[in-house]
Design a protein that fits this description.
Elements lengths: L9 H22 L27 H7 L5 E5 L7 H5 L4 E5 L3 H14 L4 E3 L12 E7 L8 H10 L1 E10 L8 H8 L9 H10 L4 E7 L4 E5 H12 L6 H14 E2 L2 E5 L4 E7 L5
Parallel strand pairs: 1-2, 1-4, 2-3, 4-5
Antiparallel strand pairs: 5-10, 6-10, 7-9, 8-9
Helix pairs in contact: 1-7, 6-9, 8-9
Length: 280
């Protein structure tokens, strides 16, 4: 164990990250009520990750980190929120994505935009991946990666110039932690996010830069059914269950705003972290 929590060793930093991810997974598997028919978690919501479906606040920072002649690898590219605009900015974009629904969304979005994105079905780190690139990007995909060391080692091994990762101030569902505790009867085991990732890079003695962009959010006013749908997903509840009814009542009481629900904002800011891979 390191002498100070402010100076964790590299091993301690990775172990602390893994504990947070494992605690979340254990809690979710123990308490979840929803058991989706599809093994592809993103199948019902992949369309929401198309370019243009949400504010691309991180884009100006990301654009400043790439060059016209670059080859960029987007790891966990989702529906193409970054891969598609990158394809209009750099020489070549490679995307690796394990979700079939997300790959379909990305491919359709690229075709619609008239750009080329080379999409691979896979999960990082991919032992078969051999191609070096100028920039690797992991945008909002690292929160629940338990073996973060293997993921980052593979990123750095295949990167010639710059690695980039994006995180919210907090991870998935943290804005509803009080609701989680009231519905499930225990505190939420929150996933690691921006500050924990910065601690890991510091422990690895990397030269890194963090640039933040404001989300401008305090609360999101949405129709009630949309808010209930979000609550069910983030609390892993089955529609019509006793806990789901409790969730609805509390959302109305705590966040009700006329015909809408003022859902607390997920984060006040987003961090774009860039760092140099160690010399080969």
């Amino acid at each position: 164990m390191s002498e100070s929590p402010l100076r964790p060793s590299e091993s301690d930093a990775f172990a602390g990250w893994a504990r947070l991810v494992a605690a979340d997974r254990e809690q979710v598997e123990r308490l979840r009520e929803d058991r989706p028919a599809s093994s592809d978690y993103y199948a019902p919501i992949a369309g929401g990750f198309r370019p243009g479906m949400r504010d691309n606040l991180e884009w100006p920072v990301l654009e400043s980190l790439v060059q016209a002649g670059d080859t960029v690898l987007d790891i966990g590219a989702g529906g193409g929120r970054f891969a598609v605009p990158l394809a209009g900015r750099v020489k070549r974009v490679l995307a690796i994505e394990p979700s079939e629904a997300m790959r379909g969304t990305l491919t359709a979005a690229a075709a619609e935009a008239g750009v080329a994105v080379e999409v691979t079905d896979g999960r990082w780190p991919d032992a078969a991946w051999a191609e070096p690139v100028d920039v690797t990007l992991a945008a909002h995909v690292l929160y629940d990666i338990e073996d973060l060391r293997a993921f980052l080692d593979a990123m750095e091994r295949h990167t010639r110039r710059t690695c980039v990762a994006m995180f919210g101030q907090y991870a998935r569902g943290a804005q509803l932690a009080p609701l989680w505790a009231a519905v499930h009867g225990e505190p939420m085991a929150t996933l690691p996010a921006l500050k924990e990732f910065v601690a890991v890079l510091g422990a690895r003695d990397r030269r890194f830069e963090v640039r933040t962009v404001s989300s401008g959010e305090t609360a999101n006013r949405v129709p009630r059914e949309d808010a209930y749908r979000l609550g069910r997903r983030l609390l892993w509840l089955a529609e019509g269950s006793e806990k789901e009814r409790r969730m609805r009542a509390l959302m109305d009481e705590w966040y009700g705003a006329g015909d809408e629900i003022a859902v607390p904002a997920a984060r006040r800011f987003i961090g774009v972290v860039s760092w140099e891979p160690p010399a080969k």
